[in-house]
């Protein structure tokens, strides 16, 4: 089934103008346009997705749509339940019609850096199980090349016992440095939903991201990387002036 990816720009802006800031309105516009009826939808994580779920829930309840949602994280699961949407999982729905998620950075080829919120592995699994993967992002995530806007590096989920050798191997093979992500509200490192650690790799220069992604995943102890290569087919960016910029993946 071909996904209808149309935005109702004027209608959405007129409804939201008095209550939301411009970028928020644009994010909700994207959420409004990306999902038709009778779909299984992967729901991503992060601040931008909150707006998309708000709009999705509004459509579902107003138009009596049949939408089943598969979350990528505990946060996404709670959003689905709080909005009264139908919750499912990959056991019951191993193939999704569309996944909608945010991104920390998006380059001109729709290569993404994701995982700032620590949910990169689940996010990549859900995106990989979807027929279509759509990104909804703030204008600050829109970049010509990875690393131009997002300065915190590429998140890499690792088995706890392997974080030191993995960080050393990444620095040796690709340069830069891979540091253990430390928690803010607790002592010690961030622990993912999968009970793993996260390394944030600050690379020094643009690389062949497809090759780098494959090579890093071959290092023993690496669970997944935050590089999403050739996965997204469309990105919506909420701009400062309230408009929505749309970028499609290049057909190769």
From TrEMBL:
InterPro entries linked: NagB/RpiA_transferase-like, Ribose5P_isomerase_type_A
Pathway field: Carbohydrate degradation; pentose phosphate pathway; D-ribose 5-phosphate from D-ribulose 5-phosphate (non-oxidative stage): step 1/1
Leader sequence residues: none
Pfam entry (one): Rib_5-P_isom_A
GO BP of this protein: D-ribose metabolic process; pentose-phosphate shunt, non-oxidative branch
Gene3D superfamilies referenced in this protein's UniProt entry, alphabetically: 3.30.70.260, 3.40.50.1360
Catalytic activity: aldehydo-D-ribose 5-phosphate = D-ribulose 5-phosphate
Top-rank taxon, per record: Eukaryota
Root EC class: isomerase
Molecular function terms from GO: ribose-5-phosphate isomerase activity
E.C. number(s) listed in UniProt: 5.3.1.6
Keyword terms: Isomerase
GO CC list: cytoplasm
Family recorded in the similarity comment: Belongs to the ribose 5-phosphate isomerase family.
Protein name (Swiss-Prot/TrEMBL): ribose-5-phosphate isomerase
Record lineage: Eukaryota, Metazoa, Chordata, Craniata, Vertebrata
């Amino acid at each position: 089934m071909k996904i209808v990816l149309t935005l109702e720009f004027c209608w959405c802006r007129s409804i939201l103008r008095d209550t939301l800031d411009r970028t928020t309105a644009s994010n909700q516009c994207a959420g409004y346009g990306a999902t038709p009826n009778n779909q299984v939808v992967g729901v991503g994580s992060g601040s931008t997705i909150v707006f998309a779920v708000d709009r999705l829930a509004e459509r579902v309840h107003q138009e009596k749509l049949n939408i089943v949602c598969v979350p990528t994280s505990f946060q996404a699961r709670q959003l689905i339940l709080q909005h009264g949407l139908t919750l499912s999982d990959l056991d019951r729905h191993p193939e999704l019609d569309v996944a909608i998620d945010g991104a920390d950075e998006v380059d001109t080829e729709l290569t993404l850096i994701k995982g700032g919120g620590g949910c990169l592995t689940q996010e990549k699994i859900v995106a990989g199980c979807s027929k279509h993967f759509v990104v909804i992002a703030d204008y600050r995530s829109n970049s010509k090349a990875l690393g131009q806007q997002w300065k915190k590096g590429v998140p890499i989920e690792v088995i706890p016992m392997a974080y030191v050798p993995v960080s050393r191997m990444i620095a040796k093979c690709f340069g830069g440095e891979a540091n253990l992500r430390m928690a803010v509200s607790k002592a010690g490192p961030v622990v993912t939903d999968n009970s793993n650690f996260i390394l944030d790799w600050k690379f020094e220069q643009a690389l062949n991201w497809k090759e780098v992604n494959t090579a890093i995943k071959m290092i023993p102890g690496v669970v997944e990387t935050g590089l999403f290569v050739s996965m997204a087919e469309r990105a919506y960016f909420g701009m400062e002036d309230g408009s929505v910029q749309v970028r499609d993946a290049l057909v190769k």
